[in-house]
Amino acid sequence: MRLLGLAFALALSTAFATPAFAADPAPAPQQQASAADIDRLLEVMDMETMMAGMMAQMSNVQAQMVDEAFGKELSDADRARMQSVTTRTQALVEKSMSWTAIEPIIRKVYLQLFSKPEVDAMIAFYGSTEGASILRKSPQAMTLTMQEMQPLMMRLMEDIKVDIDNEVKARKD
User: Is the pTM of this model over 0.70?
Assistant: First the structure.
């Protein structure tokens, strides 16, 4: 059951790391951005560094969540096993979410979603002092948000555990 909780915590930490969008996938007809425009945007945004920073922040939050969820109740041997699992899962996440793996996806989505004027506006903004500052602070903002959400997520995991335990008990009866 603890592993189920850990898996759920890991899934939640990853799910909350990606923003959900409710945008119209068909933008108003405008000039299409080129691959070169998108490359310039990703360069100005220093997207590779930003994504690496977010991955590091997620790793730290995941470790804190596991420690808070299980740390008090674990023996030294169990703690070592949990750290081993966390290390392995983090390595899998880092491999799957590496810049090499996600860059083509980001490029494809940006090409589909943003027009040339929008990309030009983002390049201008993120190329500015203020825009660059916002980008540098984004991983920290995500970390702080996730830390503030931990109590909510812990309560949610507890509620789900109770529900699963009740279901298992009901099936035994």
Answer: no
